[in-house]
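User: Last request for today: this protein with pantoate, please.
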Amino acid sequence: MQVCQSVASIRKVVASYRLQGESVALVPTMGFLHEGHMELVRKAHEVGDRVVVWIFVNPTQFEKSDDLAAYPRDLDRDLAMLKAEGVDVVFTPEAYEIYPEGSETIVETTHMANMLHGLVRPGHFRGVTTVVAKFFNIIQPDFAMFGEKDYQQLQIVKRMVRDLIMPIEIVGVQTVRERDGLAMSSRNVRLGNEDRKAALILSQSLDHAEAMAPTRPTVTELQNQIASLVSKEPRAKLEGCDIVAAESLAKIDGPIDGPTAIMISVQVGPVLLIDQRVISP
Ligand code: PAF
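Assistant: Here's the final one, the structure of the complex with pantoate:
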């Protein structure tokens, strides 16, 4: 497995793949990898001849510099995991090359970035699309893999690629779950025994919402059902429940009538957990 630190070196490696007529699948990450990332890598192997992973803790998507400084990092462990998954090359650039002195160009989905999760983290999705566009320019992959767990991010990146007519296929990858249904997350290790059991309320309430779908419930009915289920679990508190059109993330009035995304965030003990499901009537 090769490791490239400069833009020039990763471009050279990718150009050599192209010369051999090989396609490239890209896995974007900020490092500190877990099973969810490994699933993205496995899917990348399925769609592309070569798999490129980037590890870059992107400063522009953090609101506070403290959060950026506190972001966990373990490059040696990450590289060992990627090597074991047969990754071809890892790109780990320095921030000064990605954001050259005096950088002023941004990429933003003006509407989709400023709704839902974007309202609580202003500027976050602008930071994501800006860095993703830069890496797409550097690597020019055929495919790029994004987890469905960060559902709004996935839809925003798809919209950016469509709007900017980038010849890249964005592949959404299903959330990896523990056997009992809990979505995998690096945060799960912070759940004590009782909280770990209580955390099942996320997938259970989404199962329940999915079972209601054929009856074409309204958004309010779905929200009430989810809120009532979560309230029965004393260790859990529902923090957010957004139900929107699956592709545009637009608000829905009245009964659901097409693919609908449900995004929930639930505080379980000390940990804020998220989960998501797309349902159809
Ligand atoms: O999902 C992430 O880890 C990040 O938002 C991404 C896509 C790597 C951009 O920094």
